[in-house]
Write a structure and sequence with these properties.
- By secondary structure, the protein is of the alpha/beta class.
- It is 33% helix and 7% strand.
- The protein has a single domain, classed as Alpha-Beta Complex (sialyltransferase cstii, chain A).
- Helix 1 packs across helix 10 (238-247) and helix 5 packs parallel to helix 9.
């Protein structure tokens, strides 16, 4: 995957992956528009077991259950030679060695016990868009069981608006904060969303204190990153695959297969039953909460989500 394409995947897929994670793992999920009010936030904390939401979940046709594991674990690859026909960002083909090295150090794949033991869980996804500035939502946000933040969205200095609690911080190397402890809690889980092989290589070099490879990133990632190994998780690429194929309708075929289909289209008669039209949707940035923009709450954003 090229650096430009990896950058595009990061902007387009990550917010939708948050939707999948939140809906599957927790019990209530509602998207609010930009005009969020304190009243609407308060009313979003509904009891679990809503039949309406269960029907919506079934309608999405995802091949996962709410008991599935979000994060990759060592034994799946070390003992059983778990194979994947797809490479990143949809699978681990070609990246197994790097993954094994990373998982051997992190060795953790579960949610905190304080969260997993709850029968009914609520969550909220908080970004750094302008719509939350001066909202005074902080105290409401902190009442949720799980608070998910994206990339390097700041917390310190904005607690009155964004709260102070962070359960999960989803990121990739280019969006990683140089000081993860600054805007996270001591028990925050740092969840790497790998889009390319270099993302795993970056984490391996950090964990093993190896010489850093600077090439292969659309933005220089931190060369020193003080994340706790026991609090690092790797998101299973299966969730990106399901998001891309089921929600975004993005073809998952490798490039050689796409070229083969195109060649067949050009060589076969137009009336042939095997002539299939294949379209590849144009990809563009869907959110402005990107790590290359000015940090803080003074830029436009679309990633304030209640779940």
């Amino acid at each position: 995957m090229s650096m430009a394409l990896a950058k595009t995947w990061g902007f387009r897929l990550l917010p939708v992956v948050l939707f999948v994670i939140s809906y599957y793992y927790y019990s209530y999920f509602v998207f609010q528009g930009a005009g969020v009010t304190a009243k609407s936030v308060a009313l979003s904390v509904n009891p679990c077991g809503s039949s309406r939401l269960s029907k919506k979940w079934v309608g999405l046709d995802f091949n996962i259950t709410r008991n599935s594991t979000l994060f990759l674990k060592l034994e799946d690859y070390f003992w059983h030679e778990r194979s994947s026909p797809l490479s990143l960002p949809y699978g681990m083909k070609g990246s197994e060695f790097l993954l094994l090295k990373v998982l051997a150090v992190t060795a953790s794949y579960e949610m905190p016990e304080s969260i997993s033991k709850l029968d009914c869980r609520t969550c909220i996804v908080v970004g750094n868009g302008y719509t939350i500035k001066n909202s005074s939502f902080g105290s409401i946000i902190d009442t949720y069981d799980v608070v998910i933040r994206l990339n390097d969205a700041p917390v310190r200095g904005y607690e009155a608006d964004v709260g102070s609690k962070t359960t999960l911080r989803l990121f990739y190397p280019e969006s990683a904060s140089h000081e993860p402890a600054l805007h996270n809690n001591p028990d925050t889980l740092m969840v790497l969303v790998p889009f390319k092989q270099n993302d795993l290589r970056w984490l391996k070099e950090i964990l093993y204190d190896e010489k850093r490879v600077r090439k292969g990133f659309w933005k220089p990632p931190p060369q020193i990153w003080q994340g706790k190994s026991s609090h690092i998780r790797i998101l299973d690429p299966y969730f990106l695959k399901e998001t891309a194929s089921k929600l975004l309708k993005i073809p998952l075929l490798p490039k050689w297969s796409q070229h083969e289909i195109r060649a067949r289209q050009l060589t076969e008669p137009s009336g042939s039953s095997r002539n299939t039209r294949v379209s590849f949707p144009h990809m563009e940035e869907s959110c402005s909460d990107s790590p290359h923009k000015k940090r803080g709450l003074d830029g436009a954003g679309c990633n304030f989500r209640i779940c």
